[in-house]
Amino acid sequence: MMQRLILLSLLLMHSPHMLYSAESRLDSSVGYLIDGINDFQYKDARLAFGMWMKELSADEGVKMRLKPYESSEKIFEDYSTGQFFMLVVNPIFYLRNEQLIKESSQEYWAVQFNEKKLYKMLLLVNKRSDIKTLADLKDKRVATRDDNLLGRLFFDTELLRTVHEKAEEHVEEVFGVKKSSTAILKTFFGDVDACIVPEFAFKLANEMNPALSKDLRVLSSSEQIFIPMLLAFHVDMDKSLPTIFKRNVENIENSVRGRNILGLFKITGLSPVTDKELQPMRQYYSEYQTLKQRYGNADE
User: Fold this and answer.
1) DSSP letter at 189?
2) Residue 76: inside a domain, yes or no?
3) CATH of the domain at 158
4) SS3 97
5) pLDDT tens-digit map of 94-104
6) Fewer C-beta neighbours within 10 Å, C or N terminus of the chain?
């Protein structure tokens, strides 16, 4: 998912409509955190992407540098000091570093995987199981996508609300798989007791296999408050670059070639996200912190 977002960002910033002379090249360097990004856990994927990035940026008007980070502390230190100007992170790291990111950013964007900007998180169980409440998940096995860190936040929060325990205390295991569809199928076939997935992932899986909704049910659901991925523009970034980005988002969505690119990446669009739209997610994280202090370990 993250790889698709960064690739699309590069395509948008390097649109043929945005040509400059060599002397007027703009810096739109990107820093991204590997943690929470399945696609960039592998060296070959990062090398292939780097080669593609250089090809895209050749003779274009925007100077693009791509820098992966393995340390969350280092990426936010560099972002706050203007070492790069476009930050791409799993939203859980936005929540953990919200004040620093807010002080260093001029605006935020979100990637969309359906018609809605925000989505719900779901906890699914098999209808044939004896699991009727969150308490019934005691010592059960739960699957989720490796980088679904917001899903783990959701699961912990709902458990703390109801049984006053975090997942690590209540269930036998929450283990990661590479795809949300794998977690859904494991629940469908009874290989695990439950799965945590974004609502859009369950809808897509159900379109491909309608039998899933007949045998799976939602045990718990969040409100529509989460975003799949966050892109932040640094406050010191050249003011023309967000404008370029906005214009090329419109171009890519309105052309046949652009729609083909979006279809290839399974992305429906990119759009600005306001502080007001992010507020419910921040409030949810704040509630998690309060519940964790009340019922368990307050350490992150």
Assistant:
1) T
2) yes
3) 3.40.190.10
4) coil
5) 999 999 999 99
6) C
- Characterize 200-213 residue by residue with b for buried, 16 or more Cβ atoms within 10 angstroms of its Cβ, and e for exposed: bbbbbbeeeeeebb
Q: What is the pLDDT of residues 126-150, one digit of tens each?
A: 999 999 999 999 999 999 999 999 9
Q: Which residue has the tokens 């992966």?
A: 68
Q: Do 224 and 119 meet the contact criterion of CB atoms below 8 Å apart?
A: yes
Among 173, 192, 223, where does a domain finish? 223
Sequence letter at residue 263: G
pLDDT for the residue numbered 160: 97
Q: Clarify whether residues 107 and 13 are in a common domain.
A: yes
The dihedrals phi and psi of 5, each to the nearest 5 degrees, come to -65, -45
Residue 53 lies in a domain: yes
Specify the higher pLDDT residue, 168 or 113: 168
Nearest alpha carbon to residue 92 among 148, 169, 32, 144: 148
Lowest mean pLDDT among 16-30, 48-62, 140-154: 48-62
* pTM of the model as a whole: 0.84
Residues 156 and 248 in one domain: no
pLDDT on residue 65: 76
Q: Is 16 exposed, middle or buried (0-12, 13-18, 19+ CB in 10 A)?
A: exposed
Q: Is residue 47 in some structural domain? A: yes
Query: Which residue do the tokens 């994927």 mark?
Result: 45
Q: How far is CA 272 from CA 30, 228, 276, in A?
A: 17, 13, 12
The answer to whether residues 101 and 151 belong to one domain is: no
- Both tokens of 22, joined, read 């060599």
269-278 burial code (b ≥16 CB/10 A, e <16): bbebbeeebb
184 and 256 part of one domain: no
Cα–Cα distance, 169 to 219 (Å, whole number)? 19
Question: Which residues span the domain enclosing 137?
Answer: 121-223
